[in-house]
Amino acid sequence: xxxxxxxxxxxxxxxxxxxxxxxxxxxxxxxxxxxxxxxxxxxxxxxxxxxxxxxxxxxxxxxxxxxxxxxxxxxxxxxxxxxxxxxxxxxxxxxxxxxxxxxxxxxxxxxxxxxxxxxxxxxxxxxxxxxxxxxxxxxxxxxxxxxxxxxxxxxxxxxxxxxxxxxxxxxxxxxxxxxxxxxxxxxxxxxxxxxxxxxxxxxxxxxxxxxxxxxxxxxxxxxxxxxxxxxxxxxxxxxxxxxxxxxxxxxxxxxxxxxxxxxxxxxxxxxxxxxxxxxxxxxxxxxxxxxxxxxxxxxxxxxxxxxxxxxxxxxxxxxxxxxxxxxxxxxxxxxxxxxxxxxxxxxxxxxxxxxxxxxxxxxxxxxxxxxxxxxxxxxxxxxxxxxxxxxxxxxxxxxxxxxxxxxxxxxxxxxxxxxxxxxxxxxxxxxxxxxxxxxxxxxxxxxxxx
Length: 450
Hints:
The chain is α/β, with parallel strands linked by helices. The chain is about 40% helix and about 25% strand.
């Protein structure tokens, strides 16, 4: 028996059968789930029963031992625990998704106000330093928008924008951003496959993932080192991107938890524990996979794999937008007063003649019932009472041809079937003057106005 036992289970077996002092057990002993290793190397689980044999005077005579193979029961129990863990994780992610959606809505409203104000002010300043300052604010807000999108991808993996992107061009863009961060203490190495690698998805989300992975790698090399971004073409039309560092690395017990939400190895105030979790959500939404390998003192490698697509054909040039929209009457519906104020200014700046604002869908419908018919209705999607979608359906029932623009920070909203119809468009929060002007011009042309 002893020679068959797994080395890790041997001490437990000996402790029961040969207690301190060498006195044999004089009662029944049950050791459950002991592992034995067969001659062919297979591991099996057994329940080990040991009964002391006593004579009529109660004197110990020996032991009666029996073993029962419980491998199938053990595996079934482990499978059940895994299913229960998956269910708990699913429920946790569902609850977190609801929370993230609400937080994202509020954050996007804040970003919309900041970004819109900066975009407006940029139109009025003439000094180059002032213009650069407002442009910097806009860029920071765009980064914030990508963070919010990544948060939602983490909680509710979806893919909003699908467009071909060349992986090497994307990596070079990230490496350019890292130049001011590494301060020459870390060598950044590009080890690319010899041919272009095209994937489909959201370039902004993938850019944010790469920046996050690279910053994690830099944090792991405070005294310097090498950061390698390696690509390869795999069999089966898959492409691979590996982010490698030669930093401190992680022990197995840490590596097992790094993809869990809110797990972080960084000191308080330096990490939220969401970076790799959001990365997992984004990569999953792109039909990809993520693998991590790390050992203490040997660095860490994060490997991403994506479906490959053929290189796209050159696109035709997009015609220039139409003339200024100086005769348009707009109904603006948003529950946030600050957003209504800012969007009114942006619409006026874009050339809109008149903007009438409403705090909710019910109020906008009453405005339409009064007999006033605008040229365009702009609806916030997330509003108390009637949502943007519900308000749109009520409006369309009365005025089927009235153009509608849905304003939302939901990253996958452009893929919603409800908005894939004529004279309906989506404007993602936050947005710039150029973006809102483009949407207005497209809707105006589609409806036959200028």
